[in-house]
Amino acid sequence: MKKLLALLLALCLMLPVLVSCGNDGQANTTATNTAQGENVPEANYDGKAPKYIFLFIGDGMSYSQIQATAAYVGATTDGDGKPKNLNFMNFESVGSAVNYTTDSIIPDSAASGTSIATGKKTNTGYLGLSPDGTEKYESIAEKLKSQLGMKVGIVTSVNLNHATPAAFYAHINSRSEGTGVSTQLFESGFDYFAGGTFFKSSKDDPDFDMNALAEKYGYKIVSTYADAGKLTKDDGKVIVFEENPDTDGALSYEIDREEGMWALSDYVSKGIELLDNDKGFFMMCESGKIDWASHANDAATIVNEVKALSNAVQVAIDFAEAHKDETLIIVTGDHETGGFSLGFAGTDTSTAFELLSSQKISFQKFSDEVIPTYKGKKIDVTAIADMEKYFGLTLEGDGELVLTDSEYARIEEAYKSARMGSRPTSPTEEQKLLYGDYWPLAATLTGIINNKAGLNFSSWDHTALPVAVYAQGVGSSMFIGHYDNTNICNNLMKIMNVK
What whole-number distance in Å separates Cα of residue 104 and Cα of residue 123? Predict the structure, then answer.
């Protein structure tokens, strides 16, 4: 009798593992991961399907990036200085999603983007493809277009063939295959693409002809704000490239954006104008440079990027107000980047988010435009003046931005590579920890601002932190709870009744 009871108990304990499978019908990697992915909120949805779907993805954005921005807004606006909710933080439905891949608990944007886009797990670096490379995973965007005839728009602040946007149209085993991914963009037949230029890698086809593909697949390409502004529905399928791309081919960081340059919100507005039709549309909008700024551990640039995402979300909120009971808006991230900590050992429990406003330039623009001017020069009056001009840091006076002796010593050490005109070619272990892959001077100056504000980072790369999911509108209750990020797609499929 005891043996029979023991056997029954063992079977009961094993049952969750036996029945819990990945969304592609294969067992998940571990029992722990399976348990985290088990919660599928309101799986038997039988409500109304939205006509319009907005999916906003903050690349590299998790709770810390969101809360830091809320605190920054509160600290830099009139009032009591307490954190102020960003618009999407007030959405009616809130959830959280784990985002491991088939080969790592810490995801990259390709695999996590694939999970969100297709509802299935894959390997790091893979886009819309099974881990063994034999099966193409159809994205929610592809399903909505082919099965329901909805129009599709893809918007991003980074390259249009970058990992997150590519997860919705590409099927390839390397996110680095720039021309391969770009070719599949044209083949997708999606109606509206807007963002940065195509990136190219050393592996790319030197004979890649973008204009020939555009003609073959019926796309109109524009690359000025003026031409983008003139686009109408009569233009058919369009690709809008940023007129003033940065050195990586992406939109400018919000902190660097100049008057007259389009923001992410402008591309969303134009997309709505071009996509609106009787059958509805699906728009994925990525704020990709939250990730880039988090990689660089640049808190001031991060909060400005999250604010830019919030502004883009507001465009969708305003649209939803005019289309009540027809719209679903989802805001989430693909993973966290930087190990961003709202708290620093040197400031205990004190924070001063308002100090971030003293930084007037991103790490990238400072690296690209300012640091080259220091080549062959000692730290002189000009360089010291630049520290105050761009970061608010001073050597004397009163206030929290006065440099301590140890902080200035760090700056002097970091300045050496700027004077040499090149970053360390064979960095020591200590240099890698201090500066990552960035200019030592840029990393040091932004790091000092971060710490004075009471902030810190633990990594120059991604982390395994779950991401937030916010939803508003038709079907939003499907996104309440703690679940695997594949359920974002799978629940959209249930809501829209697509196979």
Answer: 8
Contacts of 237 (CB under 8 A, 6+ apart): 189, 190, 191, 192, 217, 218, 219, 220
Query: Please, what is the average pLDDT of the chain?
Result: 92
Give φ, ψ of 307 to 5 degrees.
-60, -40
359: tokens are: 């930084």
pLDDT digits (tens, 9 = 90+) for 408-430: 999 999 999 999 999 988 999 99
327-333/52-58 β-pairing: parallel
Q: What was the pLDDT predicted at 10?
A: 43
- Cβ distance 174 to 122 under 8 Å? no
Distance CA(443)–CA(299), nearest Å, equals 11
> What are 498's two structure tokens?
């697509």
Alpha-carbon span 414 to 411, nearest angstrom: 5
How confident is the model at residue 2, as a pLDDT?
A: 41
pLDDT over 90, % of the chain: 86
**pTM, full prediction:** 0.91
Rg from Cα positions in the chain = 24
DSSP 324: T
Residue 234 identity? D
CA angle 303, 304, 309 (to 5 degrees): 95
CB 300 within 8 A of CB 449: yes
Buried b (16+ CB within 10 A) or exposed e, 450-478: bbbbbbbbebbebbebbbbbbbbbbbbbb
Half-sphere exposure of 292 (CA within 13 A, CB side): 25
d(C-alpha 239, C-alpha 155), whole Å: 10
Query: What are the structure tokens assigned to 452, written together?
Result: 């004075």
For residue 212, the Cα-to-chain-centroid distance in whole angstroms is: 31
Domains and CATH numbers, the chain: 52-340+461-496 (3.40.720.10), 344-454 (no CATH)
What does the pLDDT look like over 5-49, one tens digit per residue?
A: 444 444 343 333 333 333 443 333 333 334 444 445 545 687 899
